[in-house]
Structures are given as C-alpha cells and as structure tokens.
Specification:
Length: 475
C-alpha cells in the first residue's frame, strides 16, 4: 500500500507518552489545539488547502477530554458533515486494515475481536492522504497482545461516514430494493433478451443481465451455441455452478418411466426447484438444445406479485402463508432430502408496511415436491390446516391466473434464466413421440450471484448493496 502523506503531525510512541505523562503529550501543533473545535468542523476547504491544519475533523465532546490534548480515550469524536460523531475505540481497532491486521494478499483478518483488551484506548490525530483524503490515525494504549507500540490504525473520514450511515440504515430498517413485482402485462413490456456473444464478451452486458435479474428475476438469451457446454458457460460467467444430485448440469428430456416428474412429457405445474434442501438454488438456467416436439412451452409467474395480491385481498391468508410450515422432500433411490419452510418469508427488519414495499424475502412454492404435513395435523389443530388449505388455494389462483403468467416456448439456441426463490416455472405437456425436446440446465447459488453483482456495482456505480443497505465504495 503506498500512502503519500501530505501532512503528518508527529505521533510519539506510546512509551514516550507514558514517560511524558498524558497531560503533557501534544500530537500535532499544540497551537492548533486552542482553536475551538466548532471552527474546525465548519471549515469546508479542500484537503489540499487544509494541509496545514492537521487536527481537522477531530472534535472535543463533553464526554471525551482526549484527542486534541493527546490524551487517550475510549471513544473518538470525529466531525462528519459538520456534526461530531462518536466512534467506539473497539470498533476502530477491530476494523484496522493495516498489513499487520489484515493479510495484504489473502485479505484475512490476522487477529480476533476477542483478543482486543476491554480497556483499549486510542490516541488520535488526523492526517491527509493523497489516495484516501482526510484520515484519522490512532495509536493504541493496551493494544491487542503482540502488536508493537508502532502500530497505527488509519481510517478515512469517508469510510467512517459510510460506516455510520450503514449502521443507522440497518438499525432503521431502511431497505434499498430494486425489485419490481410483475404480472404478464408488466413483464411483457419489460422482458429482456440479451445476445449470448455480447453477454460473454462485455462486463457492461453482464452487469445489465444481473441488474435485470435482480429487478425482475427473469431473463432470456438468444444466439446460444448448439453445445452441451453452453449453459455452463452462461452460468460460469456469473460464478461457480451449484452442484446437486442432478449433476453440475442436467438434462430435461423425456425418459420412459422417469423417476422425476420433470423427466416426463406431462404437464408440470408451477413450482420451484430443490425446496427440500437447506439452501435451494437462486438462479436456474435452461438452455434449449432441441425443440422439435410440439407443445412444451414454459410458463413463468412472479410469486411476489401473487403474494402482494393476497395481502391486499386477505391479510389473514397472507399471515397464514407466512407462518404455516410446509414440508418438502425428495425420498427416492438412495436420496432422502427433507426440509420444512413457510410459503412466504419476510425480511427480519422492523419497518415494513406493505409487501409491495418488498419486505418479502422469498417465497417457497413447490407442490410436486411436497411431503406430508408434519405440524398442526391433529384434531385440535384442524383450523390451522384448513386455514392453510384456504390460503394456498387463493395463492395458487393468483399465481396461475392468465393475467399473471408469462408463457414462452423456448426455441433452439435460446436460454432462460430465472430467480428460483421468486419466480415459479411450469411446463405445458408436449408430445415426445413427435420429435426431440431437450433442455440443459444449471444452477447458481445466491452468494455467487450477489458477489458478482456487488463487484460490478462497485466497478460501474461506485457503490454496492448488502442486507438492503447501499454502501458507497469508499476506501
Ligand atoms: Zn492494524
């Protein structure tokens, strides 16, 4: 890391501080310290102009006698946008990114939070760095064992500001949510087709694809090469494929006496894949290699739209779908998967009012893979089960209504990608005797999808999102 310091007030080693006595220690120019703090934080000149004002951004507050006078302190008050903001020294120490604290090559943290002494205190000054702008530089009293008195922690004012904003937004339940709920009409207007070659060659197109998938949960490709490897190439452009007992990639075609309903030619109702696993796949890819047999078109529906409809028509049904446990299983051959989840999952944040605000985290809907109910099945709980039956009828009706479903018959050389935790898919029956029908599929996990999305958000927009909170990509 190359840090070019324009200004750096001399920090004496802690041993020197101890010798001199904390009262007498003056980091930086002591003459500056007599200037009232308020004047510092109202100053809005550029870092270059301020190069001769080393204690800019440091603030005295009533509870903290440290900082200007060089005394160590449990908290650090920093002026951010003209307001004094308090940071806990434990937080500042824990988030140190110096090469002694975070390995520069593998980015792993080299100490444990629990190694930080409870009585840790910092002595602070501000510096200006060419790359990062204004920074606070902290020397530690009773540092983590093993660190020398030369150890310094540096945080840019911008980074501290970002940390504070994130904390406030997480606490307040603010959700930045790009997702747009859709029915057939909305999706027909907003449906996106991307060219395979363009997507494979340009990061901008990849970003466009991921943003669209995040928004609508559905995307189509054309011009996909007639190769069994193509679906893998499309998925790997995002990241590692999710393996499952179906294989890294898998085939959907008619097989006589199929063990799985997806491998037959009959109608396959609206569902999601692998809900009987702990972490079902986020993205599903289906590449059409052969589409010779009549029929077999795909149907897609946004479960969030249906959930919003239910919420409007019956808060009682909505609540039932949020709470009633539904068991999914795959118990066949040498496999036995088993998982229970409610139909609608909400974000665990306190502030949401309407599901159309997208407080919905995900929806679970996969009737073909349901197992027997295991909870609330006894005589005393008949109302719970019958409530679920009514709610599931209403939900299925909303999902599969003509106005909500998008129907499309994939042609050879086309590929569809959809969010398997939001968009349900179905397939109309086809005539296997009239010609070949062959789709090749793959999955990608949510972690992989969001990792690539964040990398590209940071690259193209200078910000990234996690837990619904947008972070400026500051250093
Ligand atoms: Zn460090």
């Amino acid at each position: 890391m190359s840090i070019n310091l324009l200004t750096r007030a001399g920090l004496r080693p802690l041993t020197a501080i101890a010798r001199a006595g904390s009262r007498k220690y003056r980091p930086g120019l002591s003459a500056r310290n007599v200037v009232p703090a308020r004047q510092f934080w109202k100053n809005s000149t550029s870092p270059a102009q301020e190069a001769t004002t080393p204690q800019e951004h440091l603030v005295h507050d009533a509870s903290n006698a440290g900082q200007f006078d060089g005394k160590s302190s449990k908290n650090l008050a920093v002026s951010i946008d003209g307001e004094p903001k308090i940071f806990d020294s434990i937080f500042l120490r824990d988030s140190c990114t110096c090469p002694e604290c975070v390995d520069p090559s593998n980015k792993q943290k080299l100490f444990q939070t629990c190694d930080i002494p409870e009585n840790i205190e910092g002595v602070c000054q501000t510096i200006v760095d060419k790359e990062h702008g204004w920074m606070v530089e902290v020397a530690w009293q009773s540092d983590v064992p093993g660190y020398s008195s030369e150890h310094r922690t540096k945080h840019s004012i911008n980074w501290l500001k970002r940390a504070l904003t994130t904390e406030v937004e997480l606490r307040g339940g603010v959700r930045s949510d790009e997702r747009v709920v859709w029915n057939k009409e909305i999706m027909t207007k907003n449906n996106k087709w991307l060219d395979y070659d363009d997507y494979m060659a340009n990061d901008h197109t990849l970003f466009e694809a991921l943003v669209h998938l995040n928004k609508y949960g559905l995307l189509f490709f054309k011009g996909v090469p007639d190769s069994e490897k193509s679906v893998e190439d499309i998925a790997e452009r995002i990241g590692t494929l999710k393996d499952s007992f179906y294989g890294r990639t898998w085939d959907v075609k008619s097989i006589p006496n199929a063990k799985n309903i997806a491998y037959t030619s009959q109608f396959l109702g609206l569902h999601m894949d692998l809900l009987y696993t702990a972490n079902p796949p986020h993205l599903q890819f289906l590449h059409s290699l052969r589409a010779q047999s009549p029929g077999g078109s795909s149907l897609f529906a946004d479960t969030f739209y249906a959930a919003a409809e239910i919420h409007t028509s019956s808060a009682f049904h909505f609540r039932t779908l949020c709470t009633f446990p539904v068991t999914y299983h795959y118990h066949n051959d040498s496999q036995h998967y088993h998982y229970t989840r409610p139909t609608i999952e909400l974000f665990p944040y306190p502030k949401y009012s309407e599901p159309t605000n997208l407080a919905i985290r995900r929806v679970n809907w996969s009737p073909p893979f349901q197992g027997p109910f295991e909870a609330r099945i006894g005589g005393e709980n008949q109302s719970a089960l019958s409530n679920y039956l009514s709610a599931s009828k209403a939900f299925e009706k909303a999902l599969s209504s003509e106005e909500n479903m998008l129907e499309y018959r994939l042609k050879e050389g086309e590929c569809v990608v959809f969010d398997n935790r939001r968009v349900v898919h179905a397939r109309r029956a086809f005539d296997a005797d009239e010609g070949e029908r062959w789709l090749k599929g793959a999955y990608v996990d949510d972690d992989v999808f969001f990792s690539r999305l964040r990398v590209l958000q940071e690259k193209f927009e200078g910000k990234w999102v996690s837990d619904g909170v947008t972070r400026e990509a500051v250093k």
